[in-house]
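Revision sheet: structure tokens.
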Amino acid sequence: TSMAFYTDGLTDVRPELGSTNDPYVERFERMCHAFTAADDAETAASRLLAGALGNDPLDDDVALLVVRRH
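Predicted:
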């Protein structure tokens, strides 16, 4: 079992002008799809960062902690 804690910098994203989509929801959904509780903590953290950010630039600092219980 794993749990992830993160600061708002991981999910905060500025909307593009004229976009009707909610970029926060899109990024959060990408994070949810990337996170696998069966992964070790390091792999889970890497997947979360890659899944959430993709090629998007960071607008804020990010802190991420993944804890895995054995």
